Amino acid sequence: MNSKTLWNDNWYFAKTELGVNWEDRQIWEAKMQPVDLPHDWLIYDTKNLYEDSIGWYRKNFAYAPDKTGNDDRVILRFEGVYMDSSIYVNGEHLGDWKYGYSTFDWDITDALHEGDNEIVLRVVFQAPNSRWYSGAGIYRNVWMIRLPETHIPLDGIYISSVETNKGYDLTIDTELEWGTDSGNYELEYCLRDTDNSKSPIETETSELFRVKQPLTCGQNKISMTIPVDNPRKWDITDPYLYDLQVCLWREQETNSRELCQQEYFRIGFRTIQFDPDRGFLLNGRKIRLNGTCDHHDLGALGAAFHKEAMRRKFKLMRSMGVNALRTSHNMPAVEVMELADEMGFLVLSEAFDMWEMAKNPYDYARFFKDWMEKDVRSWIRRDRNHPSVIMWSIGNEIPDTHADAHGQEITESLIAAVRKWDYRNVAPVTIGSNYMPWENAQKCADIVKLAGYNYAEKYYEEHHKKYPDWIIYGSETSSVVQSRGIYHFPLDRATLIEADEQCSALGNSTTSWAAKNTEYCIIMDRDTPYSCGQFIWTAIDYIGEPTPYQTKNSYFGQMDTAGFPKDSYYLFRAEWTDVKKDPMIHVYPYWDFNPGQQVDVRITSNAPEVELFVNGVSQGRRQIDHEKGTVLQPSWKVPYVPGSICAVAYDETGREIARQERHSFGNTDHYVLKANKTTLCADGEDMIFLEIAAEDKDGHPVENASDYVRVTVEGAGRLVGLDNGDSTDYDAYKGTVRKLFQGKLLAMIAAKTIPGEIRVTVEDAWTATASMTDETVIGMAAAVVETPDNTAAAGHRTATVTLHAIEAPIRPGICATEENREYPPAFVEPGFVPVRKLELSAAITTLTPENPSVLLHTCIYPMEATDRKLLWSITDATGIPSSIAKLEELPDGEGIRITGISDGSFQVRCMSRNGTPSVKMISQLEFQVEGMGQAFRSPYEPVTAISYDTSFGGDVSRGVENSAGTDKAQPTGLVYRSMDFGEFGSDEITLAIFANDNDPHRIQIWEGEPGENASGFGETGELVGEVTYQKPGIWEVFQPETFTLSRRLKGVVNLTIVSEDKFFLKEFHFTKQEKAYARLSALTDGVTYGDSFVRTEDAIEQIGNNVSLEFSDMDFGTDVSDSIVICGRTPLQHNTIQLRFSNGETQVLPFPHSGEYREMRFPIQKVTGEQKVTFVFLPGCNFDFKWFRFEKSGSEE
Q1: Strand, coil or helix: what is 636?
Q2: Which helix (H) or strand (E) holds 977?
Q3: What keywords sit in the KW lines (predicted)?
Q4: End-to-end alpha carbon distance in the chain
Q5: 357: which strand partners?
Q6: What ranges make up the beta strands (E) of 765-848?
Q7: Cis before 34? omega within 30
Q8: How far is CA 706 from CA 47, 270, 738, 797, in A?
Q9: Which tens digit of pLDDT belongs to each residue from 1174-1196?
Q10: Could you report the per-residue pLDDT of 908-951, keeping only the tens digit for each?
Q11: For a FRET experiment, which of 635, 728, 882, 1163 has its CA 20 to 30 Å from that of 441?
């Protein structure tokens, strides 16, 4: 009879550099070490997650042929190997498999011999091959399957059902492969109702039918349709499953039967329908797809698949209100489909992120033409029997669909490949596209009819009218970015890139292609009745694609990689769950800021009315209209006062139905351990997820704690992962020491194969050798402002929990030996104590002529924090440096003196690197300056030379018309401070000079002041111009001369004019340039962010996936621009650039191949008025960008 055995045990692994081949056995074999499967070899080094390398897997095993001849074929099934693998059996190369996500089989029978045998798998990883973290290795299960000579091939049974008046007609199509045996065979089908249990119960009373079907020798496929009366339907609210058994029997000469093969399936009866006007219907009722996209990594486990980790992921999604999953952008693990069936999730199963046009040099496009049909066969045959699958997606953001008509040919080919194996239409074919505004992509969508829109909700209405037979849904939406527990105030300021490399969880961080905010994508979908729904990007963060930074993992999720909710999670929960069943409320941010700091407080709730209290005082009630409203989370702006904030939810009658209170807190006093369950099965596979949190001495959560802890697991469990969700943290996932991020850390504890107690200890990673006392803390703080004791008592903090592993069946082939081990911290030394909070305090926050200065002190918590170096800046509300006040650091290093210069508001930012190379923490406090006047100077109006702020070098004389005379005896410098050039700036200066001779006069223009290497005076500056003034002298006549500097000066700068020659300068001014029509540098004149680009000396090069270049304040005025000149180059046949304007217009610029930089002129639709211009480079791009220039209508090329 057939057998299927898990084959994950007894493997060995070695990693080598690229270029090592099978013949180099002495190299890779010498490095072999035992390894657990599934395995991801890249996840162990967080600083090198994309290391080019080759993985070698070896397994030795004994083989004995079945003497009866009924066990003739031996097949290895690999459910996922990333990627480009080659298999060797006893030294013989059997073949290759290229794609890293599709399941593949190797019939190794003919390469085996009786006795010892060896399997070697060579796996090649070259980066970049994806836009996300792929992992590398045998990251899913391996099986050994033995089949009789005459057998049902793998995935050779296709199950479908059609609803009838009495129930369903169940059709079972079975493929057969015949051996030389000419005996009589029959199939037997048995359907059992096991009351939805996970293990079939073989009792006669559970059988719904048992039907036999004789076979004719040589018959390759046979079908059987069996009616099933009124089965219980599979649904998202009741995922009811039945067990179907298909058996292959052979008649014996003794009139008995021999069971040759049996296959089991868990099936569900459901009816799906997609309607252009009604959207998606499940079992006849409209269901809105509250879906999410999901990449395949599991946080600290990397790509190595663990079913229990995925189960937790599904549960977290369900708690948010998610009912559908898009497997972005590849075939999922087998268990993902099993869990979706079991837990009631609808699945959009996606196969490809690229076709023939590559998005990365080493991606699957290299193999698509030759391998597409093999991969589609594997994909559809494996997963077509799952009731959860509702769509087959043949691609995501495919540039081929936009490039030319060949994209339509590939679309047709892919549809045909899917229908070859899903010929009874278990699920329709779709595609997810970000090219939907353009004709070619629309032609591809017209082929599939089920059209997925990526970030293109604004085209729904237009296309619904234009293509009334299309079914429309959001295949990818949102992409709002946020970091858990990080807040960049104020809410009304859009922010994306900050010094701490975090994204604001307030809801004010968004990318150029994304929804305006989280509310937008919820409301757009809610108010589009014909839409099937949407799949947000994403429910949970994933490793890789850390837009807008170059850090470790994404910021797109509503939960971080550890599964801890961000604030946006609660907004989706509020809108996607039923208040009658589960009333909820969430208030944020946490409550621990600087005294007097203005804090935006927001509330999310599924209730119709909410109220905010600060220290028991109501701030007012607000209504939330969930049906038609445009404000889904009310906001208040309140000054921070220690104490608490409380949010209360009320139903339609005014009755309180939910409440949440958040308290101010101190330093960590103790750790709190919370497990998702206290008992696991000792089967080597089960897992417990332990949340580690910090609380202060009053039992309040310390929601910005960053303590380093050591996690020890003893007994019948093993530590397999630590994750805090912080994209900027490079400490090892597989270590035993990690720090909390914003008060939380997740420990992943896996079962061994022995029952017993599991003792988990969480303690301070190291005991500080010295600790400041509470009295010291109070004394230091009181020097400026009285601060309450906020420091935990010194001592070693330890928390323990005892869990239990109970005896359970162990699947043969399981390996359960891997455990985390000691890794050094990525940046700090053992003993390092992180800064938790920088508390700023000042006696006044309004500066006036009577009180022009104030001392601002910082209290560093905890006081024994190691890194006490503080960084300071004065900025406006947008984070841009401001000169309306100045700061002077105090000798203690933990405070500054702030002096107002001119009227306006500003922020003081205090920052800490916390022992790392970059800023990790920002604390801010708002100030106002009144009555001091405007101190900025405009360089675009004549600046009187004598009004310099300071000078150095030679004596400065005062000449006619308030001119300033330089000293011929030595170099003279004139410094003009607070020159406001604006965001765009100018590189053209005009000097009005009188020189009483005809000689050349050499002049230097500096941004800032020359450093010691120049003239020995002042701060270090940058030389931006060395010019020569020479005109025939006219007595006391100031003659202007215009010069171009080496670059534009921007923002508020100090300008220094230096000369060794004698002359009088009356005034100077800069030419105010029209930014919209100027030649703008891609490198220096805008903001660039995305996944893949390189800054060179004068360009942005190697622009790849999801890169945006933004240029704001582009005022085209009443003139009309109808063309653009771009200087760039691309190795591609053509590189598509999306040119987006803030008025919603988007145009496509196809830049042709060029090995050298060239200027290309493109006609564009007419543009007027003030715009923000964004160049968007989609996946598959490869472009070097130097500069561009818009041209006015009618201008010459």
Answers
A1: strand
A2: strand 972-980
A3: Glycosidase, Hydrolase
A4: 78
A5: none
A6: 798-806, 837-842, 846-847
A7: no
A8: 20, 49, 9, 14
A9: 999 998 999 999 999 999 987 65
A10: 999 999 999 999 999 999 999 999 987 778 899 998 898 788 99
A11: 1163
The β-bridge partners of 905 are: 928
Residue of 555, 536, 533 whose CA lies nearest to 544: 555
How far, in Å, CA of 289 to CA of 283, rounded? 14
List the 33-35 sheet strands across, edge first. 33-35, 11-16, 53-63, 115-125, 85-89, 92-97
- Tokens 């670059």 appear where? 1047
CB atoms within 10 A of CB 615: 12
Q: For 559-612, what is each residue's pLDDT tens digit?
A: 999 999 999 999 999 999 999 999 999 999 999 999 999 999 999 999 999 999
pLDDT band (50, 70, 90) for residue 767: low
Residue in this structure with the two tokens 């923002």, named with its chain if needed: 1051
Paired tokens of 201: 């119960």
Cβ pair 730, 43 in contact under 8 A: no
Q: According to DSSP H, which parts of 203-264 are helical?
A: none
Closest listed residue to residue 417, CA positions, set 371, 372, 365: 372
The burial class, CB within 10 Å (0-12 / 13-18 / 19+), for 635 is middle
Q: Which domains does the chain have, with CATH numbers?
A: 3-147 (2.60.120.260), 165-267 (2.60.40.10), 285-479+512-542+553-561 (3.20.20.80), 585-663 (2.60.40.10), 670-764+797-806 (2.60.40.10), 837-929 (2.60.40.1080), 943-1071 (2.60.120.260), 1076-1192 (2.60.120.260)
Instruction: Tell me the C-alpha distance between 315 and 539, whole Å.
Output: 12
Q: Supply 1142's token pair.
A: 């803030």
Catalytic center residues: 397, 476
**Tokens found for residue 372:** 């597409």
151 and 261 in contact (C-beta within 8 Å)? yes
CA dihedral sign of residues 556, 562, 568, 569: positive
How far apart, in whole angstroms, are the C-alpha atoms of residue 635 and residue 585? 14
Cβ 750 vs Cβ 690: under 8 Å: no
> How is the chain split among helix, strand and coil, in percent rounded to 5?
10, 40, 45
Cα 987 from Cα 1024, distance rounded (Å): 9
φ, ψ at 366 (rounded to 5°): -60, -25
